Amino acid sequence: MKKMIYPLVVALALVVVSCSSNQSLEEYYVDNSENPNFISLDLPVSLLNLDKATLTPEQKTAVASLKKLNIIAFKKTVDNSSVFITEKANVKEILRNGKYEELMKINTSFGKGIMSYSGETEAIDELIVYGDSDEKGFMLVRVLGDNMNPAHLVQLMDAMKSTDFSGDQIKALGTFFE
Questions:
Q1: Quick check: is 142 in a domain?
Q2: Residue 69: exposed, middle, or buried by beta-carbon count in 10 A (0-12, 13-18, 19+)?
Q3: 11 located within any domain
Q4: Other C-beta atoms within 10 Å of 47: how many?
Q5: How far apart are CA 6 and CA 126, in angstroms?
Q6: What are phi and psi of 105, to 5 degrees?
Q7: CB-count exposure of residue 94 (10 Å: 0-12, 13-18, 19+)
Q8: What is the dihedral of CA 154, 156, 157, 158, to 10 degrees?
Q9: Structural domain of residue 64, as residue ranges?
Q10: Could you give the strand order of the β-sheet that contains 66-75, starting from the edge strand earlier in sequence?
Q11: Less crowded by CB within 10 Å, the N or C end of the chain?
């Protein structure tokens, strides 16, 4: 009996370990939401005040396709620089796991990043914006929606210019990197 149980336990342990090695982005957000190195925000689309703006039909379609924004950011300090390297590698591994298609690379004076998505090219369900700076840390933004169209997302950015959204609602994120 003991000879049968040991291989079964080993096989079960291997299954558990192999399944947990492919952490999802959702799990990453949850696992680090209470970590003091991170700031985590879940923002409803209503926070953008787009319902009060005068929108074109295309912009209304873009807004209707949005659900919410999830933001998680890691602030690098002298004390956590080794953790920063590990966490940055973890996020990049999650983004390379095959679920996400790269949309574009971003290279600015602030740092480097990528924009990726999941879903169909004309019907995106999740847009990911990731950026990092070796001096400041990194930020990961998930834009969740239903059948978001990339062209409509451009319309959405135009629509945000006509709102009274000042960004005051997410000041904590801006001061986090100071």
A1: yes
A2: buried
A3: no
A4: 13
A5: 42
A6: -100, 150
A7: buried
A8: 90
A9: 22-176
A10: 38-44, 66-75, 137-148, 123-133, 112-120, 101-107
A11: N
In degrees, rounded to 5, the angle at the alpha carbon of residue 118 between the alpha carbons of residues 128 and 83 is: 40
Counted domains in the chain: 1
Predicted confidence at residue 62, as pLDDT, reads 78
Per-residue pLDDT of the chain (178 residues; tens, 9 = 90+): 445 454 444 444 444 444 445 789 999 999 999 999 999 988 887 777 666 667 778 777 777 888 888 999 999 999 999 999 999 999 999 999 888 999 889 898 888 999 999 888 788 888 899 999 999 999 999 988 888 887 776 666 666 666 655 555 455 555 555 5
Q: What is the DSSP letter of 48?
A: G
Within a domain: 14: no
What is the residue whose two structure tokens read 């998505």? 117
